[in-house]
Amino acid sequence: MASSRLPLFLCSIVLQLVAHTIAQQDTPLDELCLSEMGNFTKKSKYKANLDRVLSTISSNTKISYGFYTASYGRNNDQVNAMALCRGDVNPNSCRSCIKTSAVELRKHCPNQKEAVIWYDYCMLRYSNRYFFGNMEFGPWFWMYNLHNVSDATTFNRDVATLLNILKNKATSGDNCRKFATGNATTTNSLTIYALVQCTPDLEKQQCIDCLNNATALLPKCCDGRQGGRVIAPSCNFRYEIGRFYDLTVT
Questions:
Q1: For the structural domain made of 30-127, what CATH number should be given?
Q2: Which PROSITE patterns match (predicted)?
Q3: Do residues 51 and 91 make contact, with C-beta atoms less than 8 angstroms apart?
């Protein structure tokens, strides 16, 4: 799939159309190797610091809420890493996804100082710059269900209403989790299931701003589609007419 190579701190829109309905959990949704932030060599301090940080996050069994951050090193050799699992994913599946992400990201981005990978269950990113606590909406991409609904206008309105309700719930979360799921029945008796999520290091207003940016793309990405999602470094949302999240965990 085509993808942007712009640094994550740029807020310029990076558009990526991906016609998928439901992605497999073991297949990356997207990955970016951002050489603009510089490269490292196999025997460099950055490589050693990266290995240490990724090992620290991947082997962490104490955290059960699915949000991990770690930093190691100094100056331009400092590595900052973050992993976030979807809020309904159980701890074992979350850790498995993060371990897979660490392996795949180092395989596909062997010497870039900044990289990010998204799976259905988790996201992993690292950089030589400090990004914790920053709302970063770009680069982003969207995915949509191949099937359309019969009454697009009404359905679009109901999706937007549900996402706004969930947005308010998610942004009220704490520094461990900013995540919400819910459902609504449309006037045509379809049930919409949705989730929204921000990285928990964001302040409430930052989370609101990120999700507002994401839902503003609904008319472009998902007009009349039975399902859709927008994914960015700091937040994401998804909706479908079939339930795709785990109620027992949430």
A1: 3.30.430.20
A2: GNK2
A3: no
Does the structural domain 141-240 have CATH classification 3.30.430.20? yes
Going from N- to C-terminal start, the domains of the chain cover 30-127, 141-240
Beta carbons within 8 Å of 192's beta carbon, 6+ residues apart: 155, 158, 159, 162, 183, 184, 185, 186, 239, 240, 241
What is the DSSP code string of 4-21? Answer: --S-TT--S----EE--S
Burial class for 180, CB neighbours closer than 10 Å (0-12, 13-18, 19+): buried
Give the pLDDT confidence of 21-40 residue by residue, as tens digits. 344 467 899 999 998 889 99
Contact of 201 with 173, CB cutoff 8 Å: no
Stretch 69-81: mean pLDDT, rounded? 96
CB burial string 53-76: b at 16+ within 10 A, e below: bbeebbeeeebeebbbbbebbeee
Cβ-based neighbours of 68, under 8 Å, separated by 6 or more: 57, 60, 81, 82, 83, 84, 98
